[in-house]
Structure formats: structure tokens, C-alpha cells
Specification:
This protein is an alpha+beta fold. It is 39% helix and 22% strand.
Length: 368
């Protein structure tokens, strides 16, 4: 099969579908209505992942792309079907994504699955806090305890602007700050002729990681209007959220895409986030924010046996099969009267019991 793709076997499929159903039910309970989006879309200049999307040409010569992320498609859906709202618009989605090259996804998959939520049409601290609370509730619902890590890429850009760093130098420094590479910062600062005070500020940005004390340190660095507004917004979001948060205000990736707060969630043993999202502006200026959960990563984060699998039995007739299913068991129907063949199959499948009749009388047990 092509590199970056894989087969999903029954045990993983079952766990993944269970998680998908749990997440969807939780999102629906918070008022996030489900939508389904086409896997094919028009290839468009300026698409955030356009250079990494699979492209193909249809019979009319139109260049199409396989869906590489959901946010752009949801923006199109909102403009087409809800031009006047009502806002806020709460939507949930789930499905496959495809990328030609994906080095950051678990196992470098080029085909993977996400479930997510979007809150469109409002841009308040309360809305951001709602998404943080929803993200935390989603992980807790499937048995994952993880602290949310909050960033604000525009804060780094605002501090660089206040320090008088512009153009190509600012772009290069964004990357070095996001990588938290002190050596690269020093090299870039010397190459651009930045003074010692600015260089100290750059290094201080990479250290803005931790609890509420990070906001205090950021407030001390915030000189201009944009930087001060970012800190004030984060404080307001934290007050509405009310729970513990980690802050990484040295996050600078995609600062030209995200217009405000970003967040991720990590668990031990997996070096990529289970969940990630943030605030952005849709085409036309409509505000939006949301997050997505990677189901492949989520399956890997859960311990074996979560969720618990119901017992599977072998039903020797339809009456036993129906009765077993009514009690919550999984029932496979016998296809032959050859007991030796059935016993061998059960042993290979890990099925312990064979049942007969509407009372589910035990006909025999494997190993007995």
C-alpha cells in the first residue's frame, strides 16, 4: 500500500468508532450540531495547506484537491448556508484528511481521522473559554487527563514589532523563537545587527512557559498596544475558564494564520498533541475558533481494554443470537453443525461460550 497509509484492524476500528461516538455525543450536548463536508474541494491559491494537498484534475479540467484540513471547508459552508447566522454558530465534524507529506502526524500518516468543533461568528474571551472547557471535557469523556497548553502567536509578533524588528528578520526570528533555539536567536541577532537589549527580549520570549506566573512575566514585556491587549485577553479567558492552564507564550508558529489564542493538549508517551486548535479569521473577516482531536493519536493514548469490549458468544441458532444481543452481548451465528469446526473457530477467535435457544442455554464452552 502507499507510504503513509495503513489498514485498520477490527480491535482498533472498534475503539476508534467508540471514541468517535463518545466525542460526537458530548459535542452535541454542548450544542454543536453535526455537518458533513465533501472530501473533494477546489484547489485554491492561499489555502493554508494547499502546497501539501493531493491534487487531481476532473473531466472538465478543473483542479481539485483532497480535503487536507476542515476549517477552510467549514468557512465555505458557513458563508453558503448561514450568511446571516444566527451567530454564534456551533458545528461539529468528523472524517478523513489527506496530505502528500505529513511529518508531524503520528507515524507520519498521510491519511488520518479527526473529530472537531468550531464556534463561528463571535470573538470574545467567553467564547475562547468555552472552547477550552469543551476541549477539556472532550478528553475527560474518553478517559484522558491532560492539561491544556495555551499560546498566543500574535504576542510574539507584537513584541518583535515593539522591539523594532521588521521584514525578513522578523520572519526568521519567529521560527527560531518557536523552536526555542537560543543559538539560532544569537546568530540571527548578530546577523541583523540587533542590540543586546533586543536580544535579551528574544531569549525571554523562549522562556515564557509555565503557569499563571507566565502572564505576569509577559505583562512586564508588553510595551505596545497589541502586546498588552494579548495579555489582557488571556487573563480574561483564564478568569472565565476557572481551571488550571499551562501557558507557552513563545509559541510563534502560523502567527500569520491564527488571530488570537491557540491551545493544545499533550499526554505522556506521545510527543505530538492529541488535540489542537485556536482562533482565526474566515474569508470575509468572519471570526472563528475551534479544535480538532486526532483519533489515531487518541487510540494510542488510551490503555489496552479502554473502552471495555463486551463478550462475544457463538449462537447456535437465531433465537440464541437475538437473546444474547438483547442482553448486550455480541453474538456470532454458527454456520455449520460440525461441533469440532465450531470449537476450533471459537478457540482461534477467543470466544468462550456457545449458546442455544431463547434462554441462551450453554451448549458447550471452549476448553470444556
Amino acid at each position: 500500500m502507499p507510504e503513509g497509509t495503513r489498514d485498520v484492524l477490527p480491535a482498533e476500528w472498534s475503539r476508534r468508532e467508540h471514541l468517535r461516538a463518545q466525542l460526537s455525543a458530548l459535542l452535541l450536548g454542548w450544542g454543536y450540531q453535526g455537518v458533513e463536508l465533501p472530501a473533494l474541494e477546489y484547489a485554491a491559491h492561499g489555502h493554508p495547506l494547499g502546497d501539501r494537498a493531493f491534487k487531481l484534475i476532473d473531466s472538465g479540467g478543473q483542479v481539485l484537491a483532497l480535503r487536507s484540513e476542515f476549517t477552510t471547508a467549514l468557512g465555505r459552508l458557513a458563508r453558503a448556508h448561514y450568511p446571516q447566522g444566527p451567530f454564534p454558530l456551533r458545528l461539529q465534524y468528523g472524517g478523513r484528511l489527506w496530505l502528500r507529506a505529513q511529518t508531524s502526524e503520528l507515524g507520519r500518516l498521510r491519511e488520518f481521522t479527526q473529530v472537531g468543533a468550531e464556534l463561528i461568528g463571535v470573538a470574545t474571551a467567553q467564547a475562547d473559554a468555552e472552547l477550552l472547557a469543551l476541549a477539556q471535557a472532550a478528553l475527560e469523556a474518553v478517559g484522558v487527563n491532560a492539561l491544556l497548553e495555551v499560546g498566543f502567536p500574535g504576542f510574539v509578533d507584537a513584541v518583535l514589532e515593539d522591539a523594532g524588528v521588521h521584514g525578513e528578520a522578523r520572519e526568521a526570528l519567529h521560527g527560531a523563537i518557536d523552536r526555542k533555539s537560543g543559538a539560532d536567536l544569537d546568530l540571527l541577532a548578530r546577523g541583523r545587527g540587533l542590540d543586546r537589549e533586543v536580544t535579551r527580549t528574544l531569549h525571554a520570549l523562549t522562556d515564557l512557559y509555565g503557569g499563571p506566573e507566565v502572564l505576569e512575566a509577559a505583562a512586564g514585556m508588553a510595551q505596545g498596544t497589541r502586546a498588552r491587549a494579548a495579555v489582557a485577553h488571556l487573563r480574561e479567558v483564564a478568569a472565565h475558564f476557572g481551571g488550571p492552564l499551562l501557558y507557552d507564550l513563545g509559541v510563534s508558529r502560523r502567527y500569520d494564520y491564527y488571530t488570537g489564542l491557540t491551545f493544545r493538549a499533550y499526554v505522556d508517551g506521545i510527543n505530538q498533541p492529541l488535540l489542537g486548535g485556536g482562533r482565526y479569521a474566515l474569508e470575509g473577516g468572519l471570526p472563528g475558533a475551534g479544535f480538532a482531536v486526532g483519533l489515531e493519536r487518541l487510540v494510542r493514548a488510551l490503555p489496552p481494554g479502554v473502552p471495555p469490549e463486551p463478550e462475544t458468544v457463538l449462537a447456535l441458532d437465531l433465537a440464541a443470537a437475538g437473546a444474547a444481543r438483547n442482553t448486550g452481548l455480541r453474538a456470532e451465528l454458527a454456520w455449520t453443525a460440525d461441533e469440532a469446526e465450531l470449537r476450533a473457530y471459537c478457540a482461534a477467535r477467543g470466544i468462550r461460550r456457545a449458546l442455544r435457544g431463547p434462554q441462551m442455554a450453554a451448549a458447550w464452552e471452549v476448553g470444556a
